[in-house]
Task: inverse folding
């Protein structure tokens, strides 16, 4: 789907890059755990991914906002799909829950699940962008 251009493309690429970076950090931490157990620290692992998820959430929000601002001011406002809205809400809830606790209180499983949810939600965001672009063709 090569419909993105300009600001939307830049913001979409920011989301993709942030997701790829968080995935790489997770994979590196898992390799460290496997190969050098004495150097692995689950708190560092969780904190690094949690920090990445905060950025991912902000980047998704910025992309959705940019998408909505492209609308014709005289037309009905474009709303994202329920799936994208639920992804945004899940990321906000995760970020709120982890922002106020110590790293050792963050569940690695919950953190990795949230990262996987964000990756899965990228398809929904693509569909929303495609629907928006189709509306204006």
Result:
């Amino acid at each position: 789907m090569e419909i993105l251009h300009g600001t939307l493309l830049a913001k979409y690429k920011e989301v993709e890059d942030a997701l790829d970076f968080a995935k790489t950090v997770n994979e590196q931490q898992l390799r460290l755990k496997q190969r050098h157990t004495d150097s692995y620290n689950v708190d560092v692992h969780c904190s690094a991914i949690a920090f990445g998820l905060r950025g991912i959430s902000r980047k998704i929000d910025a992309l959705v906002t940019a998408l909505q601002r492209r609308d014709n001011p005289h037309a009905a406002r474009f709303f994202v799909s329920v799936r994208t809205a639920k992804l945004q809400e899940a990321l906000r809830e995760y970020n709120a829950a982890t922002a106020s606790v110590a790293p050792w209180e963050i569940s690695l499983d919950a953190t990795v699940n949230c990262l996987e949810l964000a990756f899965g939600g990228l398809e929904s965001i693509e569909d929303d962008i495609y629907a928006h672009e189709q509306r204006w063709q």
Observations:
- The chain has a mean pLDDT of 86.
- The first helix runs from residue 6 to 35.
